[in-house]
Amino acid sequence: MIIYGLKGIELKSKTKDTQTGNISFSNQEYSKLLIDAKIAGFTNIKDYLLSLHNNLNPKKTIRKQEPSPRLKTIHKTDLGKIICGDSLKWMAKAENKKSVNLIVTSPPFGLLSKKSYGNENSENYCDWFRSFAESFNQVLADDGSLVIDIQGVWSKGIPARSLYHFKLLQMLCEEYGFYLCQEHYWWNPSKLPSPAEWVTVKRVRVKDAVNCIWWLSKTPNPKANNKKILTSYSESMLSVLSNGFYNKGTRPSGHKLSKSHFSINHGGSIPPNLIVASNAASCGPYFDYCKKYGLKIHPARFPYAIPDYFIRFLTNENDLILDPFAGSSVTGFVAEKNNRKWIAIEKDIDFANGGKGHFANKSPYKLEKNEYTIRSPHKI
Ligand SMILES: C[S@@+](CC[C@H](N)C(=O)[O-])C[C@H]1O[C@@H](n2cnc3c(N)ncnc32)[C@H](O)[C@@H]1O
What we know:
Blueprint: E1 10-13, E2 19-22, H1 27-39, H2 45-55, E3 72-76, E4 80-84, H3 87-92, E5 100-105, H4 125-139, E6 140-150, H5 164-174, E7 179-187, H6 196-201, E8 210-217, H7 235-243, E9 249-250, E10 256-257, E11 274-276, H8 285-292, H9 305-314, E12 320-323, H10 330-337, E13 341-346, H11 349-354, H12 356-359
Parallel strand pairs: 4-13, 5-6, 5-12, 7-11, 12-13
Antiparallel strand pairs: 1-2, 3-4, 6-8, 7-8, 9-10
Helix pairs in contact: 1-2, 4-5
S-adenosylmethionine (SAM) binds next to helix 3 and strand 13.
Protein name: Methyltransferase
Keywords: DNA-binding, Methyltransferase, Restriction system, S-adenosyl-L-methionine, Transferase
Family: Belongs to the N(4)/N(6)-methyltransferase family. N(4) subfamily.
């Protein structure tokens, strides 16, 4: 597309640092370039051409984002606020540097079938994410954490998976200096089987029901305390604690279990890096509020359990939590309930307004109940 417009370029050096170029286009070529530049989000052809050029070396490309709308606070509590607008704009403010203790968020994924709020292509995902990666680095406190929930996607037309979310992880660590503290996985048992062609028709793949959650930080030792996220002991563990009977000695795995190994009740067991949480809710204060005010229901809401886990694990009361892709502001609501300060930024006005619905909930804060069993793949 670009080649035809570049015939006959002459570059002359005016000063040591500046080059001027004469490029002639036919009217048709010029208007086509201008239209393509606008579609790609540029206001002039020069920036568009430079971006195309930089794309030849994707590692250095920072995609120019759409012009950002004005930031507008649309809901405020003692601890936080929902802001409508572009989170890049909020993060660019000097007073916000190193002020955030935890970013917990779910960006638009690189989906093939786009959601109403728009998604990036998985092929360009890293380029799109670069401005956010830079801004996250700037606003995060040195001992803060960055938690990104990201869904894997299928490649177009074939039963194979895209690598975009792994490339994102690699880019964040290798180019922006983040450490991968620990990958987590979110199993959503209520996910529907798709894409139909591979899963329910040809039956050559299984249900994709697990999102990756990358927990990253600026240093290898961010603030974290797993005592704050202990889960209830199982029946069998409770009986071991009360009667002291268990297989002492060396396990087949090589782990040596001493006499006193399971003798102390620590108040709960340390959770694994697999979080189970459904987001199948379709009623409650958020839905009532959106219905009452004719607002769109957000199609990709967090269950409370996801931000709740990371907020309690990685921050203390009064720390500041940021969700720069806030959607329905579940993160903000959960931060409020955990006595943390918070900022939830969402660019879509309907979604941002819908977030007020969570705060209309006067009933006590309760996490969703998640009954689940993992069945072995035996014959039915
Ligand atoms: C996957 S959704 C997040 C859903 C959210 N976790 C929830 O619980 O509702 C991603 C959201 O990011 C928003 N978004 C995309 N780019 C943005 C930007 N630059 N600033 C603020 N919001 C943005 C989209 O409008 C979309 O609602």
